[in-house]
Design brief:
about 0% strand, globular, about 75% helix, mainly alpha, about 260 residues
Length: about 260
């Protein structure tokens, strides 16, 4: 989905693309809802927090996709992978959690990896970098809200509220920058929407069937797909410094996840 939106953003506004993608995602999500409690599962138990979480994820998604319009996929993902580190930082003031020296060390090393990758002062930081940083902050905040929700909310309610917020957020943007897509572009937008909706549904099912500690690290395989699609579709070849910084960020994130799991046990 990310690669498709990046490809299409050369000719169409990201807001318009995401609007069509979110609308199309309702098809696989509708099938998911039908098989997981139906309309009754859509009623949130804590509406305020559910909608706040959805709004944060929607804003994060839009920042991510707008950032990818000007950044290589692998570089954007590497910044996005700071989310576990940011969750650790935010959990102290917002959740009153105690963070030990091991996790603080991982946070410091991870952010050092970001600095290595971005090389401020040695290269010009693009708007995409700041959009990806904003996206990571927003998504980390959504995970803090999700922790407050616990396991009380259904998967269908979380996904449908996200799509609703995306449609509300991108609707005005789509109208303002509307350009009627040709058949090929429309087909790609619909394909991206099916991927987006199906991906979220499969993610909910994955967390239902396996412990979070087992599922979460699989997010980091996105960097492999980013390298593949970036090279194939856009001719991106990350330099050794970027790859080294990304490796440090990923290693720090994985270590933080491991420490979180160990602490929870």
């Amino acid at each position: 989905m990310d690669a498709t939106v990046k490809w299409l953003s050369a000719d169409y506004a990201v807001g318009q693309i995401v609007f069509i993608v979110a609308g199309t995602a309702l098809v696989p999500v509708g099938l998911f809802v039908a098989g997981n409690g139906g309309l009754r599962a859509l009623k949130p138990r804590s509406p305020g927090r559910v909608w706040l979480r959805a709004a944060l994820v929607a804003a994060s998604t839009l920042c991510t996709l707008q950032g990818f319009a000007s950044l290589p996929l692998a570089e954007g993902y590497a910044i996005a992978f700071t989310v576990p580190l940011l969750v650790t930082v935010l959990s102290v003031p917002l959740l009153r959690e105690a963070v030990g020296i091991h996790r603080w060390s991982a946070v410091a090393v991870g952010f050092a990896g970001v600095i290595v990758m971005l090389r401020p002062g040695f290269q010009t930081l693009a708007p995409g970098h700041f959009l990806m940083i904003a996206s990571a902050l927003l998504f980390a905040s959504s995970l803090i809200v999700l922790r407050r929700l616990g396991r009380s909310e259904s998967g269908p309610a979380l996904i449908v509220t996200l799509l609703a917020c995306l449609l509300l957020l991108t609707g005005p943007l789509a109208v303002a920058a509307w350009k009627t897509p040709d058949a090929a572009a429309l087909g790609l937008m619909l394909l991206a929407g099916l991927a987006f909706g199906s991906g979220h549904a499969f993610l909910v099912l994955a967390f239902r069937e396996a412990p979070a500690a087992l599922v979460s690290p699989f997010h980091y395989t996105q960097i492999l797909w980013a390298l593949f699609y970036g090279a194939w579709l856009f001719g991106d070849r990350p330099d050794p410094v970027t790859l080294a910084g990304a490796s440090v960020v990923i290693a720090s994130g994985l270590y933080t996840l491991w420490r979180e799991t160990r602490r929870s046990r």
